[in-house]
Amino acid sequence: MSLHALSAGQPDANYLIVLLHGWGANAQDVAGIAPYMQLTNYQMVFPDAPHDHQLASGMGAPGGRMWYALPDIFDFDQPFTHQADLQHSRQLLLEWLMTLPTKTGIPLEKTILGGFSQGGAMTLDVGMELPVAGMMILSGYSHGPIATPSSPCPILLVHGIQDPVVPIAQARQNKAELTALSANVDYHEFDMGHEISLQVLDAASKFCKNVV
């Protein structure tokens, strides 16, 4: 099984951005931000998570996808790593990312991996195992203790102070953990909720340009 993905940007670009959507969204949702990034020499790829999104009632959210299910009552401080659906998505995502250089002609060393919310958590998880050029964690969190990166790279960490979904404390904790691992963290807090605002897009665009 392979992940379905949308693409945007320049087919002959030298750099690649992979952006993972959040819980209940899909590739189309995050693909809409591509024009606002205003990046040149970048190709962008947006994969769909492998699992259908299910509401608490058991009804499917139309078009919604998820990397793994969240329990009705959960605490972001509790580790998620034991979940079978998370492990399934993790393996699929790793395998898919490893095939991208052949498909795009762009090596992982010139690829920025990023994600929003649950997609940010997946980025922080699998990105530590890959020789990517950078990572962007947008309103995300960690599945558990953050692993030591196999190939250290700059990391953009952005979060909303008013986030009602993923508490700002998660971003601050992740920043502290990454700093303890000697990671190069570009950290921003904005007066916003759980969203990808114009401020976030501006920070992400600047981050990508600096990585290049």
Give a verbal description of the structure.
By secondary structure, the protein is of the alpha/beta class. It is built from six helices and nine strands, in the order ββααβββαβαββαβα. The strands form two sheets. The protein has a seven-stranded mixed β-sheet with strand order 1-3-2-6-7-8-9, sandwiched between helices. Strands 4-5 form a two-stranded antiparallel sheet. Strand 6, helix 4 (118-126) and strand 7 (134-138) form a beta-alpha-beta unit. The protein is globular and about 45 Å long.
Briefly, what is this?
The protein is of the alpha/beta class.
Query: How many domains comprise the coordinates?
Result: 1
Give the total of beta strands. Answer: 9
Rg (C-alpha, Å):
16 Å
Q: Which descriptor suits the 3D outline?
A: globular
CATH topology: Rossmann fold
CATH class term: Alpha Beta
Portion in beta strands: 15-25%
Number of helices: 6
CATH superfamily: Alpha/Beta hydrolase fold, catalytic domain
Write the layout of secondary structure elements.
Blueprint: E1 5-9, E2 15-20, H1 27-31, H2 34-37, E3 42-47, E4 51-54, E5 60-66, H3 84-104, E6 111-116, H4 118-126, E7 134-138, E8 155-160, H5 168-180, E9 185-190, H6 198-211
Parallel strand pairs: 2-3, 2-6, 6-7, 7-8, 8-9
Antiparallel strand pairs: 1-3, 4-5
Task: Give the tags.
seven-stranded mixed β-sheet, two-stranded antiparallel sheet, 6 helices, Rossmann fold, alpha/beta, globular, single chain, 212 residues
